[in-house]
Amino acid sequence: MIVSNQALVTIITPCYNYGKFLAEALDSLLLQTYQTWECIIINDGSKDNTEEIGLKYAKLDSRIKYHYQNNTGLAGARNNALRIAKGKYIQLLDADDLIQSDKLRLQVELIESNPSIDLIYSSMKLFKSNAKARVYENFYLPNNITPSGKDEIIINALLEDTFFLPGCVFFKKELYEKTGNFNESLYGLEDWNYWSRAALLGFEFYSDQRDNTKLLCRDHDANMSKVYEKMLKSRVQARTHIIQVTENLNLQKKLTVSNSFINSILKKHHLLLLLDKYQYYFHYGNKLAGLKALFAYSIQSGKPFYIFKKLLSKFR
User: Fold this and answer.
1) Average pLDDT along the chain
2) Higher pLDDT, 311 or 125
3) What is the pLDDT of residues 132-162, one digit of tens each?
4) Nearest to 274, CA basis, from 303, 306, 236
5) What are the two backbone dihedrals, phi and then psi, of residue 89, each rounded to the nearest 5 degrees?
6) Other CB atoms closer than 10 Å to residue 190's CB: what's the count?
7) How many CA atoms does the CB half-sphere of 140 hold within 13 Å?
8) Long-range contacts of 236-239 (CB under 8 A, 24+ apart)
9) Which residues, 6 or more positions from 120, have their beta carbon under 8 angstroms from its beta carbon?
10) What whole-number distance in Å separates Cα of residue 11 and Cα of residue 236?
């Protein structure tokens, strides 16, 4: 039931052939203690029972809206939902994940009592999709950091990778209106790319580690993050775009951080891009191109023997 004097939250749920998981994701919304929300399901050209499940829940609860589109990928599905979102706040929720029952209520209260915060991200728990008994275990991304703040703090924290998953995120629609669309030309890592762009524009991030605000991540064989080759290619694409955006915003004088900091970040990004290219090309493409990238990194980083150490490690 939508309460007229409460802020509306739009939950965005893209779904591509995840019909078998979608009902449970939507059930986690129906259990929310904060009830002033709408959910936009974007069926991204699925061939399974996504439409059946989406229409069933849309009929069950008028807050749930179902839309079909030809397949464009996660970024395109999220963009189409964001364009029609009516909420003051946005919660992302992929069709294979769940959110705990107080997430919306607690984070609406937090952001409304702290107006400087633009984006809240929660911590995560992981569960096995095919396990006989459902067990939720604390889950951390490889960098395992939880910074709060803006400008240098968040830009630097996002340098190598994201530190939260899309479903952790609760943010002001204003952030989308200023940051723009997710990059639809990327195969993956469009979320890391997006948060990096938002950080460059000075939006404030806040880490919310409280119980009952967590994202519950489903571990299953179809997780996109397990497609290693394509994720490496995506990293090259996503970082290249972050570099371009950083340079353009700097030229337009739209950054609030110092020139020395931006020059330092750009230098680090360019070096990391060389390592990204080495990883991708050497293992999955043109080995010569990979070696050239590794050689360039060794010279530009001031570590001339790095290339030899890296190559020797391959033969141990």
Assistant:
1) 93
2) 125
3) 888 999 999 998 999 999 999 999 999 999 9
4) 236
5) -125, 155
6) 25
7) 6
8) 236/273, 236/276, 236/277, 236/280, 237/185, 237/186, 237/187, 237/189, 238/183, 238/186, 238/188, 238/189, 238/190, 238/192, 238/193, 239/269, 239/272, 239/273, 239/276
9) 107, 110, 111, 169, 170, 171, 205, 206, 208
10) 30
Q: How many Å apart are CA 183 and CA 170, to the nearest integer? A: 19
| Structure tokens belonging to residue 228 | 């290693």
Eight-class DSSP state of 185: T
Task: Tell me how far apart the alpha carbons of residues 256 and 259 are, in angstroms, rounded to a whole number.
Answer: 9
The model's pLDDT over 46-92, given as tens digits with 9 standing for 90+, comes to 999 999 999 999 999 999 999 999 999 999 999 999 999 999 999 99
CA–CA separation, 237 vs 190, rounded Å? 10
Whether the full predicted model's pTM is greater than 0.90, yes or no, is yes
Question: What DSSP letter does each residue of 199-232 carry, written as one string?
Answer: HHTT--EEEE--TT--EEEEE-TT-GGG-HHHHH
User: What CA–CA distances, in Å, run from 101 to 4, 63, 92, 269, 279?
Assistant: 21, 17, 15, 38, 40
Q: Which residues of 57-91 are buried (b: 16+ CB within 10 A; e: fewer)?
A: bbeeeebbbbeeeeebbbbbbbbbbbeebebbbbb
CA distance 175 to 299: 39
Residue type, 48: D
Neighbours of 31 (CB within 10 A): 12
Determine the Cα–Cα distance for residues 192 and 198; give it in Å rounded to an integer. Answer: 10
Whether pLDDT at 204 is above 80? yes
Q: What whole-number percentage of the chain has pLDDT above 70? A: 95
Q: Which helix (H) or strand (E) holds 197?
A: helix 190-200
Burial of 316 (0-12, 13-18, 19+ CB in 10 A): exposed
Please report the pLDDT score of residue 315 as a whole number.
54
